[in-house]
Amino acid sequence: MNQAVVLEGVCKRYRRSYDAPQVTSLKSFLTYDLWRKWAGGAKRPQRAASAAPPWALQDISLTVPKGQTLGMIGRNGSGKSTLLKLLGRILAPDRGRLTIHGKVAALIELGAGFHPELTGRENVLINGVIMGLSKSDMRARMEAIIDFAEAQAFIDSPVRTYSSGMYARLGFSVAMHVDADILLIDEVLSVGDATFTAKCRGALDAMRGQGKSIIVVSHDLHTISTWCDEAVWLDGGKLVQKGPAAEVVGAYQHRFAAPATA
Known about the structure:
Elements: E1 3-13, H1 26-38, E2 55-65, E3 69-73, H2 80-87, E4 95-100, E5 104-107, H3 120-130, H4 135-149, H5 164-176, E6 182-186, H6 194-209, E7 213-217, H7 221-227, E8 230-235, E9 238-244, H8 245-256
Parallel strand pairs: 3-7, 3-8, 5-6, 6-7
Antiparallel strand pairs: 1-2, 1-4, 8-9
Protein backbone atom coordinates (compact mmCIF):
# COMPACT_ATOMS: atom_id res chain seq x y z
CA MET A 1 0.00 0.00 0.00
CA ASN A 2 1.61 3.23 -1.21
CA GLN A 3 -0.99 5.64 0.13
CA ALA A 4 -0.82 7.09 3.62
CA VAL A 5 -4.21 8.84 3.43
CA VAL A 6 -7.18 8.41 1.09
CA LEU A 7 -10.27 10.64 1.20
CA GLU A 8 -13.27 9.83 -0.98
CA GLY A 9 -16.12 12.33 -1.13
CA VAL A 10 -15.60 13.40 2.49
CA CYS A 11 -18.09 15.90 3.92
CA LYS A 12 -18.34 17.43 7.39
CA ARG A 13 -21.13 19.53 8.84
CA TYR A 14 -21.06 21.26 12.23
CA ARG A 15 -24.23 21.36 14.25
CA ARG A 16 -25.25 24.80 15.44
CA SER A 17 -26.36 25.27 19.03
CA TYR A 18 -30.01 25.79 18.10
CA ASP A 19 -30.11 22.66 15.93
CA ALA A 20 -30.18 20.56 19.11
CA PRO A 21 -33.46 19.47 20.74
CA GLN A 22 -34.97 22.11 23.00
CA VAL A 23 -34.52 20.14 26.21
CA THR A 24 -32.01 17.30 26.41
CA SER A 25 -31.26 17.26 30.14
CA LEU A 26 -32.10 18.90 33.44
CA LYS A 27 -29.02 21.08 32.97
CA SER A 28 -30.19 22.32 29.56
CA PHE A 29 -33.66 22.98 30.97
CA LEU A 30 -32.27 25.03 33.86
CA THR A 31 -29.68 26.80 31.71
CA TYR A 32 -31.66 27.67 28.65
CA ASP A 33 -35.34 27.66 29.58
CA LEU A 34 -35.73 28.79 33.19
CA TRP A 35 -32.75 31.17 33.11
CA ARG A 36 -33.75 32.87 29.87
CA LYS A 37 -37.35 33.15 30.99
CA TRP A 38 -36.21 34.82 34.21
CA ALA A 39 -33.81 37.06 32.24
CA GLY A 40 -36.62 38.59 30.24
CA GLY A 41 -38.26 36.00 28.09
CA ALA A 42 -35.40 35.47 25.67
CA LYS A 43 -35.92 32.33 23.65
CA ARG A 44 -33.59 30.10 21.77
CA PRO A 45 -33.17 31.11 18.13
CA GLN A 46 -35.29 28.98 15.84
CA ARG A 47 -33.92 27.61 12.61
CA ALA A 48 -36.16 27.79 9.58
CA ALA A 49 -37.50 24.37 8.63
CA SER A 50 -35.84 24.52 5.20
CA ALA A 51 -32.45 25.72 6.46
CA ALA A 52 -29.66 23.24 7.11
CA PRO A 53 -26.37 23.70 8.93
CA PRO A 54 -23.60 24.72 6.49
CA TRP A 55 -21.02 22.23 5.31
CA ALA A 56 -17.54 22.79 6.72
CA LEU A 57 -16.17 20.41 4.09
CA GLN A 58 -17.85 19.37 0.86
CA ASP A 59 -16.96 16.35 -1.28
CA ILE A 60 -13.22 16.29 -0.56
CA SER A 61 -11.38 13.59 -2.48
CA LEU A 62 -7.59 13.33 -2.39
CA THR A 63 -4.74 10.96 -1.67
CA VAL A 64 -1.48 11.51 0.19
CA PRO A 65 1.25 9.04 -0.81
CA LYS A 66 3.56 7.65 1.83
CA GLY A 67 6.59 9.86 2.28
CA GLN A 68 4.94 12.99 0.89
CA THR A 69 4.89 16.37 2.61
CA LEU A 70 1.56 18.03 1.83
CA GLY A 71 0.70 21.64 2.61
CA MET A 72 -2.80 23.01 3.08
CA ILE A 73 -3.58 26.64 2.30
CA GLY A 74 -6.69 28.78 2.26
CA ARG A 75 -8.35 31.69 3.98
CA ASN A 76 -9.58 31.46 7.58
CA GLY A 77 -12.73 29.36 7.73
CA SER A 78 -11.95 27.47 4.53
CA GLY A 79 -11.97 24.06 6.25
CA LYS A 80 -8.23 23.41 6.70
CA SER A 81 -8.30 22.74 10.44
CA THR A 82 -11.49 20.70 10.13
CA LEU A 83 -9.82 18.46 7.56
CA LEU A 84 -6.76 18.10 9.78
CA LYS A 85 -9.00 17.08 12.71
CA LEU A 86 -10.65 14.44 10.54
CA LEU A 87 -7.24 13.06 9.65
CA GLY A 88 -6.33 13.04 13.34
CA ARG A 89 -9.56 11.16 14.13
CA ILE A 90 -10.64 13.97 16.42
CA LEU A 91 -13.73 14.32 14.25
CA ALA A 92 -15.56 11.83 12.04
CA PRO A 93 -16.88 12.61 8.54
CA ASP A 94 -20.64 12.91 8.05
CA ARG A 95 -20.36 11.54 4.53
CA GLY A 96 -17.72 9.87 2.45
CA ARG A 97 -14.87 7.58 3.32
CA LEU A 98 -11.57 8.32 5.06
CA THR A 99 -8.80 5.70 5.14
CA ILE A 100 -5.55 6.18 7.04
CA HIS A 101 -2.65 3.73 6.85
CA GLY A 102 -0.31 4.06 9.81
CA LYS A 103 0.01 5.72 13.20
CA VAL A 104 -0.90 9.40 13.37
CA ALA A 105 0.59 12.08 15.62
CA ALA A 106 -1.08 15.50 15.65
CA LEU A 107 0.10 18.98 16.59
CA ILE A 108 -3.22 20.69 15.94
CA GLU A 109 -3.78 22.91 18.94
CA LEU A 110 -1.49 24.09 21.71
CA GLY A 111 -2.10 22.08 24.84
CA ALA A 112 -4.54 19.69 23.16
CA GLY A 113 -4.52 16.49 25.18
CA PHE A 114 -2.63 18.08 28.06
CA HIS A 115 -4.33 18.21 31.44
CA PRO A 116 -3.52 21.61 33.01
CA GLU A 117 -3.17 20.28 36.55
CA LEU A 118 -0.79 17.45 35.65
CA THR A 119 2.92 17.97 35.21
CA GLY A 120 4.66 17.93 31.87
CA ARG A 121 6.16 14.54 32.68
CA GLU A 122 2.75 13.07 33.52
CA ASN A 123 1.21 14.53 30.38
CA VAL A 124 4.01 13.14 28.20
CA LEU A 125 3.35 9.67 29.58
CA ILE A 126 -0.42 9.92 29.06
CA ASN A 127 -0.11 11.33 25.53
CA GLY A 128 2.28 8.61 24.47
CA VAL A 129 -0.06 5.91 25.75
CA ILE A 130 -2.97 7.55 23.90
CA MET A 131 -0.87 7.41 20.72
CA GLY A 132 -0.45 3.67 21.16
CA LEU A 133 2.81 3.20 23.07
CA SER A 134 3.11 1.30 26.33
CA LYS A 135 4.05 2.91 29.63
CA SER A 136 7.41 1.19 29.52
CA ASP A 137 8.05 2.50 26.00
CA MET A 138 7.25 6.05 27.10
CA ARG A 139 9.39 5.82 30.22
CA ALA A 140 12.28 4.63 28.04
CA ARG A 141 11.84 7.68 25.77
CA MET A 142 11.09 10.19 28.50
CA GLU A 143 14.57 11.67 28.85
CA ALA A 144 14.98 12.01 25.07
CA ILE A 145 11.64 13.84 24.90
CA ILE A 146 12.62 16.17 27.76
CA ASP A 147 16.04 16.84 26.25
CA PHE A 148 14.64 17.67 22.79
CA ALA A 149 12.09 20.05 24.31
CA GLU A 150 14.77 21.58 26.54
CA ALA A 151 12.21 21.15 29.30
CA GLN A 152 14.37 20.07 32.23
CA ALA A 153 13.57 23.21 34.24
CA PHE A 154 9.78 22.90 34.01
CA ILE A 155 8.96 19.26 33.23
CA ASP A 156 7.72 18.57 36.77
CA SER A 157 5.56 21.70 36.98
CA PRO A 158 1.81 21.72 36.14
CA VAL A 159 1.36 22.56 32.46
CA ARG A 160 -1.08 25.36 33.38
CA THR A 161 2.06 27.31 34.27
CA TYR A 162 3.57 26.85 30.79
CA SER A 163 3.89 29.54 28.16
CA SER A 164 2.67 28.89 24.62
CA GLY A 165 6.26 28.27 23.55
CA MET A 166 6.74 25.67 26.27
CA TYR A 167 3.54 23.93 25.19
CA ALA A 168 4.76 23.85 21.59
CA ARG A 169 8.18 22.50 22.49
CA LEU A 170 6.86 19.68 24.63
CA GLY A 171 4.03 18.76 22.26
CA PHE A 172 6.36 18.67 19.27
CA SER A 173 8.91 16.59 21.15
CA VAL A 174 6.29 13.99 22.05
CA ALA A 175 5.14 13.80 18.43
CA MET A 176 8.74 13.28 17.28
CA HIS A 177 9.32 10.36 19.64
CA VAL A 178 6.23 8.16 19.20
CA ASP A 179 7.29 6.62 15.85
CA ALA A 180 4.32 8.07 13.97
CA ASP A 181 3.90 7.31 10.27
CA ILE A 182 1.88 10.49 9.64
CA LEU A 183 2.44 13.84 11.35
CA LEU A 184 -0.24 16.55 11.29
CA ILE A 185 0.81 20.15 12.02
CA ASP A 186 -1.46 23.20 12.30
CA GLU A 187 0.59 26.43 12.69
CA VAL A 188 1.70 25.52 16.21
CA LEU A 189 5.43 25.82 15.53
CA SER A 190 5.15 29.52 14.77
CA VAL A 191 5.10 30.28 18.51
CA GLY A 192 8.60 28.93 19.14
CA ASP A 193 11.81 30.95 19.07
CA ALA A 194 14.03 30.90 15.99
CA THR A 195 16.51 28.42 17.44
CA PHE A 196 13.88 25.87 18.39
CA THR A 197 12.05 26.36 15.09
CA ALA A 198 15.26 25.48 13.25
CA LYS A 199 15.65 22.43 15.49
CA CYS A 200 12.09 21.34 14.67
CA ARG A 201 12.70 21.81 10.95
CA GLY A 202 15.74 19.55 11.20
CA ALA A 203 13.69 16.88 12.97
CA LEU A 204 10.98 17.13 10.31
CA ASP A 205 13.57 16.79 7.54
CA ALA A 206 14.86 13.65 9.26
CA MET A 207 11.29 12.34 9.43
CA ARG A 208 10.87 12.96 5.71
CA GLY A 209 14.11 11.12 5.07
CA GLN A 210 12.65 8.10 6.85
CA GLY A 211 9.70 8.02 4.41
CA LYS A 212 7.14 9.45 6.83
CA SER A 213 4.22 11.57 5.66
CA ILE A 214 3.72 15.13 6.90
CA ILE A 215 0.59 17.23 6.43
CA VAL A 216 0.92 20.87 7.45
CA VAL A 217 -1.54 23.76 7.56
CA SER A 218 0.07 27.18 7.40
CA HIS A 219 -0.47 30.77 6.28
CA ASP A 220 3.27 30.99 5.60
CA LEU A 221 3.08 30.55 1.84
CA HIS A 222 6.86 30.68 1.39
CA THR A 223 7.28 27.66 3.67
CA ILE A 224 4.52 25.76 1.88
CA SER A 225 5.94 26.47 -1.58
CA THR A 226 9.57 25.67 -0.74
CA TRP A 227 9.25 22.88 1.81
CA CYS A 228 6.18 20.87 0.74
CA ASP A 229 6.06 18.46 -2.19
CA GLU A 230 2.42 19.20 -3.00
CA ALA A 231 -0.27 21.52 -1.68
CA VAL A 232 -4.05 21.69 -1.56
CA TRP A 233 -6.05 24.91 -1.66
CA LEU A 234 -9.36 24.91 0.19
CA ASP A 235 -12.01 27.59 -0.01
CA GLY A 236 -15.49 27.49 1.48
CA GLY A 237 -15.02 23.85 2.44
CA LYS A 238 -14.28 22.83 -1.15
CA LEU A 239 -11.08 21.63 -2.78
CA VAL A 240 -10.06 24.30 -5.30
CA GLN A 241 -6.72 22.91 -6.46
CA LYS A 242 -4.16 20.20 -5.70
CA GLY A 243 -0.75 19.90 -7.27
CA PRO A 244 2.92 20.88 -6.94
CA ALA A 245 3.24 23.20 -3.95
CA ALA A 246 4.78 26.17 -5.80
CA GLU A 247 2.10 25.94 -8.51
CA VAL A 248 -0.81 25.88 -6.05
CA VAL A 249 0.66 28.72 -3.97
CA GLY A 250 1.15 30.77 -7.13
CA ALA A 251 -2.48 30.29 -8.13
CA TYR A 252 -3.62 31.23 -4.63
CA GLN A 253 -1.48 34.37 -4.61
CA HIS A 254 -2.79 35.38 -8.00
CA ARG A 255 -6.40 34.90 -6.84
CA PHE A 256 -6.08 36.90 -3.64
CA ALA A 257 -3.04 39.06 -4.42
CA ALA A 258 -1.44 37.52 -1.33
CA PRO A 259 2.15 38.35 -0.31
CA ALA A 260 4.77 35.58 -0.23
CA THR A 261 4.36 35.26 3.52
CA ALA A 262 1.38 35.90 5.77
